[in-house]
Amino acid sequence: MEIGKVPESVLKRAIFRQIRTKRREVLVGASVGEDCAAVQLAPDEVFVLSTDPITGATKDTGRLAVQITANDLASAGAEPVGILLTVLLPPSADEALIRQLMQEVESACEELHIQAMGGHTEITAAVNQPLLSVTGVGKVKKGCLVTTGGARPGDAVVVSKWIGIEGTSIIAKEKEEELRKRFPVSLIEEAKGFDRYLSVVPEAAAAVRSGVSAMHDVTEGGIYGALWELAEASGVGLEIDLKAIPVRQETVEICEYYRLNPYQLISSGCMLMTSADGYRLVQELKKAGIPAAMIGRCVEGKAKKIINGEDEAYLERPKTDELYKIYE
Predict the structure, then answer these.
(1) Opening angle at CA 70, ends 84 and 141, nearest 5
(2) Mean pLDDT of the residues in the chain
(3) CA dist., res. 60 & res. 83, Å (int)
(4) Pair type for strands 38-39 and 237-241
(5) Is pTM beyond 0.90 here?
(6) Closest listed residue to residue 104, CA positions, set 129, 80, 125, 132
(7) What is the pLDDT of residues 263-303, one digit of tens each?
(8) Which H or E element spans position 98?
């Protein structure tokens, strides 16, 4: 396609016709010539906004883009309402690719009841693969906002599901042909299917009901990066039991094959939470059908200990995510 704005006829066919999920709060949504979306909230509700790009995956990018943004909003205790999309495409892109991306986006929006409210789509030589950046809009009742910086000394540290599931799914899809030479098909198919666990919206809702003090979705940098960020934001130290951190065997196998550290692997679908009553939080999550585990506690001071049996180490500042090593 020619460099510049995507033609209006393509916008209507490949983008606007794919947007079917609607929210009553959205007064102005995606339409030709509309540069802004408008959302009406009740007097006792607060806007929550988030933005994120998808750069580490080339497959299912539309779905991933929606899910990670919804996860950001959910980690603040907010209900996701809508998204704004910026889609940058290389000149090699065609209308079929644009339609596919929007179908992926709408599929995720439908599952999460989120409206694609608008955005911008452009053909540009500045990218060599589709680049999606999503701004999310959510709402939360006044007084119910949850932050990453809400943890206090004495709080239990809890994680939902398993670490590394997003990275494992991406690697299994991107490197499927290579992995089939080393692993059973059943392992690869299960790993690819980890994308069904990527939403943390359900656990966020359950956590808010149980009185969670802080939440942080585990994304780039993996669980180690998320622990560091939560501790820094809250001004607390940590004592974390490495063996208590839940990880799937598929993740272990694939990470060992590529010599990756699963604790530094992108982990959307895993929520990091703190609570004065960790046992109650874990039980509430399990009642909602969400696996969860207590992995440690917050302490006074700044030290961030990782305890592995008799050995102790200290967390370092977040490093580049392990996922990018598979492209080197």
Answers:
(1) 100
(2) 92
(3) 17
(4) unpaired
(5) no
(6) 132
(7) 999 999 999 999 999 999 999 999 999 999 999 999 999 99
(8) helix 95-112
